[in-house]
Request: fold
Amino acid sequence: MRSPLGRAIGYGSAKEGVEHWWAQRISAIALIPLCLWFVAAIIGLVGADLEAVQNWAGRPLPAILLVLVVIAVFYHAALGLQIVIEDYVHKELAKLGLIIVVHLLCFAFSVAGIFAVLSLALAGSG
Amino acid sequence: MRSADRPLSPHLQIYRWQLTSVLSILHRATGVVLSAGTILLVWWLVAAASGPDNYEGVQDFLGSWIGLLLLFGWSTSLFYHLCNGIRHLVWDTGHALDLESTYLGGWVVVGATGALTLIAWIVGISRWVS
Reply:
């Protein structure tokens, strides 16, 4: 009877473990300026009515940055939540199911966010 | 030795609380909080995109005391995760990993989180009042 370690010795690594790690760091780096911009922008919009928000989101730079924020945030969230699930959920089926649900939800929320920014932007510029 | 007989490493409750472990746990906790909180952002965007009535509804909720409490928690979590995330990125380059630097960096993160949260809310509230 061999231990799991004994069985694994000699096979080497799967050679693809670092992709997730890199994706998490790169999205983190992107989110540093994006988050600071977003918080400053939100503070600038305190008390604004819808027309002011539309005019703001209708300008190219805020619209592009908002879409980038949404993409980077949900990408980073999906990667991070996946790690949390992998660490704490030990039943294989539940783990896999939760990871799939989290990734799909993050994808859906980012599509909703991007759509909202675009329709806001077009309402503002139109 | 069979796998079942191997000693387990001691778990969380064995250790004394210390700054480094608390900040590490907080990083993960704020990450989860922010994931949930970001749904609020999408809700705000979608409401704004679907017309004045929906936008009013979200604005009223965010202006209520529970909305403000959520925003305060969200902003504190964001600033903490941002500052401590930068600390992690520095570690990833192999720097500042000794005991003294991890404590110094930890306190810098705590201070920066407090300062950024304070500044954001002072500016925000002064704009709200004026």
